[in-house]
Amino acid sequence: MSTNPLLQTIDALAKEKGIDPQIVIEAMEEAVVTASRKVFKTNEALKAKFNPDIGQVELFAVKTIVDTVTDPDTEISVTEARDIYGEDAEVEAGYQIEFPKSTEALGRIAAQAAKQVIFQKVREAERENVYAEYHERVGEVMSGLVKRFEQGDIIVELGRIEAILPRKEQSRAESYAQGDRIRAVIRAVGKGVKGPQIMLSRTDAALLIKLFEQEVPEIYDGTVLVRGAVREAGDRAKVAVYSRERDVDPVGACVGMKGNRVQAIIRELRGEKIDIVEYSEDPVQFVTNAMSPAKVQRVTIIDEPNRVMEVVVEDTQLSLAIGKKGQNVRLAAKLTGWRIDIKSEEEKRREVEAQFGALEAAAEQSSEAPADDAANAEHSDVQS
């Protein structure tokens, strides 16, 4: 490590902000050029370089070698250049000569300009680093501390940076106080005027999937796959799982011994009920499973192109199948991607009876029609 005080300061600042020391050096060089223009009020092409050997930023006026000088501030004749550097100075190569300039006159102006430029550059570098890092982590679960509240939104401290948990991404079953630890999934990362904004969510289904990955080893190692998850945060969720190995029960693996695995997730989600169902490639079987905990009598595909199914349950199972305010059947429809028309056995029986009655009435009408036609024909013959 360098013993030069300026180099030590650069290294410390870069380490603290998590940025490349070269960014700080470039900011210092830019600051010296900016301050020099204000002090010298010159049209010269100024250039600053950090000299690590002496730990200082040196200033130069750069002049391009030309045949005929039209701007003495930025150009030097080839004759004069050869007097300084010999025959190697050529116009064709676009050679430039750097003339050292003193920085002693810069004083406080340089220090102030340096402070502003360095602050700006470091902040920009921080923003880019944060965006680059967290943009790639969308969908990951992060753990942080509740720092403060802003109009219903929660500001969460994630190490060196802050993220926002908007009101709409909060579960209504949860409440937090300042200093509480919170786990949430990264929903999105955007570039704002004030820097990258990391948006978290406690309602996204991705959070539920990640929690299962953390709690269930079989999901983590890929033996069991999560084929879908839907939530109404704070109330109920449904998760479809599938096993790659015959001897592994996917639902049992997720539930765990005495329900310990799923209970850990339920506690994390503050009591949210979770239905774990087995995924099936057969849409009828999948819908049957998705209607859990209700027991289904039969499932019929009504309209395959529009993905509509009819589900019939026992009369005693109807309220369970529908769920509170239609929640169970609504989540099952979201999970499977099918529109579900749910009926009780009694409703279906009445519907079938009505259909048979309509058919019988139509049959009677059709059988009466020929007799009426014959009678009308006979009556016509008698008149003639």
Describe this structure as you would to a colleague.
With about 375 residues, the protein is an alpha+beta fold. The protein has four domains: about 5-130, NusA, N-terminal domain (N Utilization Substance Protein A, Chain:P, domain 4), CATH 3.30.1480; about 135-200, OB fold (Dihydrolipoamide Acetyltransferase, E2P); about 205-280, K homology (KH) domain (GMP Synthetase, Chain A, domain 3, 2-Layer Sandwich), CATH 3.30.300.20; about 285-384, GMP Synthetase, Chain A, domain 3 (2-Layer Sandwich). Helix content is about 40%, strand content about 30%. It has helices spanning about 5-15, 20-40, 80-85, 105-135, 205-215, 215-220, 250-255, 260-270, 285-290, 320, 325-335, 345-384, and strands spanning about 45-50, 55-65, 75, 95-100, 140-150, 155-160, 160-165, 180-190, 195-200, 225-230, 235-245, 275-280, 295-305, 310-315, 340-345. A five-stranded antiparallel sheet has the order 7-6-5-8-9. Strands 1, 2, 3 and 4 form a four-stranded mixed sheet that branches. The radius of gyration is 38 Å and the shape is elongated. The N and C termini lie far apart (about 130 Å).
